[in-house]
Amino acid sequence: MGCLQSKTSNVQSPDEESIQAEKPDQANEDPGEQDSQIPAFKEFSLLELRTATNGFSSDCIVSESGEKAPNVVYRGKWESNRLVAVKRFSKQSWPDAQQFVAEAAGVGKVRHKRLVNLIGCCAEGDERLLVAEYMPNDTLSKHLFHWDKQPLPWEMRVRVALYIAQALDYCNSENRKIYHDLNAYRVLFDEDGDPRLSSFGLMKNSRDGKSYSTNLAYTPPEFLRTGRVIPESVIYSYGTVLLDLLSGKHIPPSHALDIIRGKNVLMLMDSSLEGQYANEDATKLVELASTCLQSEARDRPNTKFLLTAVAPLQKQKEVVSHVLMGIPIMTVVVPTMLSSLGKACARMDLTAVHDVLLKIGYKDEEGAENELSFQEWTQQVQDMLNTKKYGDIAFRDKDFKSAIDYYSKLVVMMSVPSATVFTRRALSYLMNGQPELALRDAMQAQVCMPEWPTAFYLQALALSKLGMESDAQDMLNDGAAFEAKKQNNWRN
Hints:
Radius of gyration: 28 Å
């Protein structure tokens, strides 16, 4: 199977202008503008992924599949508390570690908002792992065949068909012509309820090149005849996904084609969709599925044709996906009165936090700077000033381990605790991967200065790193409240 434009198709696609007329905001977007929030592809260490998945805990498993070449997908937490999906293969799937890394790196270059983008891999010892964006709202299979509250509405099914066609067309433009085993499990829903095509399907998943784990009844005919996957095979599998969307159940393509030939098109339709669609729209989608399921690869349409066939059927473009699906969106409300430091902490940008703390210096501590810099005749005070100086230099130069050492000595030496020193050490702990100690120091800074927004913002940052989002939100709100109070005092 693959992401393709069929070279042998006898179905003519319309020109680019007509495609753009149907989907002005989706076809030829610059992928560079779409993936600015996606981390660059990297090779992870096994330790990093063990940590992210809590030791590959069974509590983190989100799916398991495969018998001959079993693999498991875990939910994990990576830097800045980002959720990721970690797919763990058996070694027999990829005995050659270099081949695995090279293949993953190639897939990692493909970036699009209709894909679940690959952000990393790991090949250490017998381990073969892929890391991708995490999709929190289940698979198409779950929403079609195992729904709890409501069946997937017609408009959402049309949107799935369109978005997956867009994903396949983009893959084709990037010369990723083989997609393995396209089915309802390969389509996942992101935090906004938008359907995306899993990038895992762009990777081979077995040593012998076998690409289909589904029932033989759903496998492209050419694969059954030759054991080979060709680019046109993805169109056949796209047709099987259309059947799933139309019927709400698994219907073998041969049986579906018999129904279609008998002119009993509406017999295919999911009864739960009654009254949600126009019969002519359903007929068009059924006819498209029939064309995709042609036994000869040359008789199937290409991806451009899929786009222009499906795009006009989407009638509620202005309604966002999570509304169509009835998915509640849990939005974090960032307070409006946030300083640059508060905003940096809210988005967990440690580099920006460091820059702001350097600019603030010790000026928020009235009298503290004078005490720390006051020249006295005792060697003890001189040692304290030198320790502070070396700590500040290390902090400025991003030598956070040394900064922790110097500030720890300084805390013991100072007769009056410094809130600034505690916050600087807190950030140093965060940079060193020690959020618990960072939280402790940020709380100490609050003890020193009970209404200092900086202390609350650093606590929020540490809490976010610990996964305590609700508490972090409370701290952001408290910091913003004291920020507003300070602004009002200045005005008065």
